[in-house]
Specification:
Length: 195
């Protein structure tokens, strides 16, 4: 979402839709699909006007394009009809849309609105637990633990920083501990083999 923002797709609506596209889809693919979609429709009204078949075509490459097309079209219509075209700026308001959970809501708030919100994906979950900063069994519990200990000023930044770090250095399997600049402060919880 941060790279998409940096490419000029920073409205709350664009961030909400792009976050939905990104669910279980590689970042590189999500970026390509979102840019292709926004070239055709980048507002709630324009998105709601697209036929579902066309939306599915535009989402080609993302995982589960049919259900995502239904969800994007439905939330676009609701934003137009129930919200006067404005994306809700609260977690509860966002999570009333089908397909929007805590992570997507947090990304929309943080990146689209600039509101401090904590988005915990698998990378953030793995890394902060590996460091020993928190101890939690899943991303939802990690989010709750981080909300209690992480200063609010880092809530947006942690996702932006740790996602690429988790992809390239602190990987799920065989992390690159030998070249990690954070090795001295890392508890290496659960690391049995590294590079």
């Amino acid at each position: 979402m941060f790279e998409l923002r940096d490419r000029g797709y920073a409205t709350p609506f664009q961030q909400l839709v792009a976050s939905l596209i990104s669910a279980r889809t590689r970042d590189e693919t999500s970026l390509e699909v979102a840019e292709r979609l926004f070239a055709v429709a980048d507002t709630p009204a324009a998105m709601a006007a697209l036929p579902e078949e066309r939306l599915v075509q535009l989402l080609h490459g993302a995982t589960f394009p049919e259900p995502k097309a239904r969800d994007i079209r439905a939330l676009s219509r609701r934003i137009v009809e129930e919200q006067d075209g404005e994306v809700p700026d609260t977690p509860d308001g966002l999570m009333r849309f089908h397909g929007v959970g805590p992570k997507i809501a947090a990304l929309t708030l943080a990146v689209g609105f600039g509101i401090p919100a904590l988005a915990v994906d698998i990378h953030v979950h793995r890394i902060v637990n590996r460091w020993g900063y928190v101890q939690a069994r899943n991303p939802e519990k990690t989010m709750a633990a981080l909300l209690a200990v992480l200063p609010k000023r880092y809530w947006v930044e942690i996702n932006e920083r740790l996602v690429p770090f988790g992809k390239w250095v602190c990987t799920g399997e065989r992390p690159r501990c030998s070249t990690c600049p954070l090795l001295p402060m890392c508890a290496r919880v659960g690391v049995t083999e590294s590079r």
